[in-house]
Amino acid sequence: MATMTAAQWTGVMPAITTPFTVDGSVDHEFLSGHARRLIASGCTGLIPLGSLGEGATLTFDEKVAVLATCVASVGDRVPVIAGVASLSTDEATALARKAADVGCRGLMVLPPYVYQGDWRESRAHVTAVMSATPLSCLLYNNPIAYGTDFLPEHVRLLAQQCTNLHAVKESSGDIRRITAIRSLLGDRISILVGLDDAIVEGVAAGAVGWVAGLVNALPDESVMLFEHARAGRMREARELYEWFLPLLRLDTVPKFVQLIKLAQEEAGLGSERVRAPRLQLDGAEREMALATIGECLGSRPAGA
């Protein structure tokens, strides 16, 4: 299966959650159906094994199996983009090669887990992963979560070194980063918003895609919101955004995985089961989350 082109880094690309069965194993049957459901709503790609996909809790073989299921489920209709993160560079490059072997068409490249290297070390790691295959690559910048910050100038240098670096997932929370990267690289790099509650602002600043989280629970509304923003239909975008924001903000807190999976279950599109060390929400925390989710689901806009 061919790699992606730079122009394909656009639209709503779900950071797809990893479903689990009651015994804690990956629920491949549900994963397959969920992947197809997201594509039917107009999503332009799938990104398994990200933070929301609980990639850090999956074994290497489980990761490869998740990728294979996603590829088999969507075929060549949209690209499957493997999230690649690991404690070690060797394991990350091995996963990148396996992703290519099972038919993924792109990679989302993260800095290493746990160790927060300096620029020289971070550069060496991500360039090793990007150079492991000819697959088109998305650099994931999330300094809040990972402690590693790829500044716009770093992105420029990486793009010079790695010709298959075609996109950046910008999750710094600073919208100015989008215009800064565009001023350095123009259309050489596609910029995708990585925070759910920054999508309208990000598109206005020049982002062309959205690596989305709440799309797992509300795919139709997510695609509609992005399309309104991209088309410049700002009245429609604002109205939908104001309704959606309480849920989109669930993507920006430490228990975002539990919260988004709970929203999936309440919306009828998944289970709230997570893998340890995460635990399902309980007590007052769960009740507050359910109240927020219930209020939004109970007032879904007409036509969404």
**pLDDT under 50 segments (min length 5)?**
none
CATH superfamily heading: Aldolase class I
In the CATH hierarchy, the architecture is Alpha-Beta Barrel
The largest sheet is: 7 strands, parallel
> Termini distance?
34 Å
What is the total number of structural domains?
A: 1
Instruction: Give me the CATH fold name.
Output: TIM Barrel
Question: How many beta-strand runs?
Answer: 7
Mean pLDDT: 96
Strand content: 5-15%
- CATH class group: Alpha Beta
Portion in helices: 40-55%
Run of helices and strands: EHHEHEHEHHEHEHEHHHH
Q: Gyration radius, to the nearest Å?
A: 18 Å
Structural category: alpha/beta
Q: Which of globular, elongated, flat, extended, rod-shaped describes the shape?
A: globular
Number of helices: 12
Describe the structure.
- It contains 12 helices and 7 strands.
- Helix content is 46%, strand content 11%.
- It has one domain (6-233): Aldolase class I (TIM Barrel, Alpha-Beta Barrel), CATH 3.20.20.
- The mean pLDDT is 96.
- The protein has a 7-stranded parallel beta sheet, covered by helices on one side.
- Strand 3 (106-109), helix 4 (119-131) and strand 4 form a beta-alpha-beta unit.
- The protein has 304 residues and is an alpha/beta fold.
- The chain is globular.
- The two termini are 34 Å apart.
- The longest helix is centred in the N-terminal third of the chain and has 15 residues, at 60-74.
- It has helices at 28-40, 60-74, 89-101, 119-131, 143-146, 152-161, 176-185, 199-205, 219-231, 234-248, 256-266, 283-297; strands at residues 11-14, 81-84, 106-109, 136-141, 165-170, 190-193, 209-212.
- The relative contact order is 0.13.
